[in-house]
Amino acid sequence: MPGSLPPLNALRTFEVAARRLSFSRAARELCVTQGAVSKQIQLLEQYLEQPLFDRSPSGLVLTEAGRQYLPAISQAIEKIQSATAQLQQRAHESSSLTLNLTPSFSNLWLIPRLDALREAIPELKLAMLSGDGEFNFRDSEADMAIRCLPLSLSHEHSVLLREEELVAVIHPDLLREMPIEKPIDLLQHPLLQHTTRPQLWRQFLNEVTGLEPREMQPRYNHGFEHFYMSLEAARQRQGIALVPDFMASDALAAGEVINPLGISYHSGYGFYFLVPPYRSRTPGVQQFHGWLSQQLNGE
C-alpha cells in the first residue's frame, strides 16, 4: 500500500519485542498481555507480507527482514518520543519565552528594567532576539514580539502598548554654548538624522515651529538607523536627537541630555505587542504583557 503507514501500535510492539527478543518481556514493558503482543506482531507481519521473527523452542530470533527493519523503526520511535517530550516541556514551561524586539526598545528601556521585571514575575525567563519592521510568526520561533509600526487597527495579532511621542534631546554643554529659547532655535544646532525614517525631523520641526519644509534650513550631522544610536550620539555632543520619550527617560533623569523647552511630538507611530493566537492565553505571555502596559503607561 504505497504511501500508507503500518499500524503505529504494532510498530511500537515490534520495537520492544525485537529489543527484548521475548514476547513475555515485551508484554511486561508495554503493560499488556503476551497474547496482545503476539497479535500486534502478526498484524505487522501481515501488513509487511513477510515474517519478522523466527519462533523456535530455543527462543525468539529476528529474521533478516526483522534485522533490517529494526534500526529504522527504533530511530523513528526515538525521534517521535524526543519531539513529543520537547513539545510537552515547552508547553509546561510557559515561563521560558522568546521575545523578538527592536534593538532600541531592548537597549534603552527593557534591559535597564530587568531587575524590576524579575521582582514582578520571578519565574519568567526571556530569550531576547533583535529585529525591526513588520513581523511574521510563521518565519520565527518567537513567542512574542515588540515592534514600532504606523498607528493602525490592521496589524495582525497586536495590541498597542504606547503611542510614539518623540522628544528632542541635546547634551547640556551644547545647550550652554548655544541656548534654545524658542523652537526656531533648534535649527541653530546640528540635527541627527534617523536613516530609516528621514522625514521625522521635517515633520517635527513643522509641528513645533509652524514652518513649512521649504522655509527650513536644517543642518544635519550623522545619520543613525536606531534610536539607541542617536541617543548615544547626543550624549557624545554630536547634535540633537529625536528619541521616544520613554526611551530617553533614564538619560534625561540622569542629566546626560536635556529636552529643551519640554517639546514633544506625536509621530503617528506606536509600539505594539504582538503574540500569535496559540500563545495569547499562555500565563507568562499575559503576565509580561500586563507588566509592560503598567510600566509604559503608569497603570
From TrEMBL:
Pfam families: HTH_1, LysR_substrate
Keyword terms, alphabetized: DNA-binding, Transcription, Transcription regulation
CDD domains for this protein: PBP2_GcdR_TrpI_HvrB_AmpR_like (cd08432)
One GO MF term attached to the UniProt entry: DNA-binding transcription factor activity
Residue ranges of every copy of the HTH lysR-type domain listed in the record: 6-63
SUPFAM superfamilies: Periplasmic binding protein-like II, Winged helix' DNA-binding domain
Domain of life where this protein originates: Bacteria
Record's keyword annotation contains Transcription: yes
Listed InterPro entries: LysR-type_TF_proteobact-type, LysR_HTH_N, LysR_subst-bd, WH-like_DNA-bd_sf, WH_DNA-bd_sf
Keyword Transcription regulation set for record: yes
Biological process (GO), any one: DNA-templated transcription
Family indicated by similarity: Belongs to the LysR transcriptional regulatory family.
Record-given protein name: DNA-binding transcriptional LysR family regulator
Organism: Marinobacterium mangrovicola
Species lineage: Bacteria, Pseudomonadati, Pseudomonadota, Gammaproteobacteria, Oceanospirillales
